[in-house]
Amino acid sequence: MKKILKNYFFWTYNRGSFHYDILVTLILVFIFVAPRFWDFGDKPTRASGLHHPIQVVGNSDNSFTVTVYASDVNLDLHTTASRMEVKRALRKAIEPVTGDAVFVEHWETVTDAQGIPVWKVWAHR
Fold first, then answer.
1. Would you say 76 and 93 are in contact if contact means Cβ atoms under 8 Å apart?
2. Looking at the predicted structure, is the pLDDT value of residue 26 above 90?
3. Rounded-to-10 torsion of CA 89, 92, 94, 97
4. pLDDT value at position 1?
5. More confident residue, 29 or 11
6. Is 20 inside a domain boundary?
7. Can you name the residues that pair with 94 across neighbouring β-strands?
């Protein structure tokens, strides 16, 4: 019995043998059944705090323009925040859509067609 377990552990059985088929079956069972009983923590993260859609328009050379509503950015438009604080708040707001490997180049505040203030952010990877 000890030798069989050792051979299973080191996968020494030849392809097509009974024990090889058992190993493959156990792996397939784990792949398809385990997620139903075991939380691997790989569920997609929800963009917490966002109430409006974020619009991303790709430009040339890995750059893109992101439009995010001012109410979704954790920053008041009427306060005088430093450039780094604004950059950090905008990056955090667009991360759910663009990922964390994004660099914010510059931004401006505009209003959309309904007159709601939005941030227009130019960024790149």
1. no
2. yes
3. -170
4. 84
5. 29
6. yes
7. none
**Residue linked to tokens 């397939």:** 28
pLDDT tier at 21 (50, 70, 90 boundaries)?
very high
DSSP class of 53 = P
| Mean local confidence (pLDDT), 13-35 | 92
Looking at the fold, whether 89 and 115 belong to one and the same domain comes out as yes
Name the DSSP letter for residue 123.
E
pLDDT digits (tens, 9 = 90+) for 62-101: 788 989 888 878 777 666 778 888 888 888 888 888 877 7
The single-letter code of the amino acid at 57 is V
Whole-angstrom CA distances from 84 to 74, 90, 91, 104, 105 are: 14, 10, 10, 10, 11
- Residue found under tokens 């097509």: 16
Task: Provide the residue range defining the domain that includes 12.
Answer: 2-37
Is residue 45 assigned to a domain? no
Q: Which of 58, 49, 121 is nearest to 86 (CA)?
A: 121
Q: First vs last Cα of the chain: how many Å apart?
A: 55
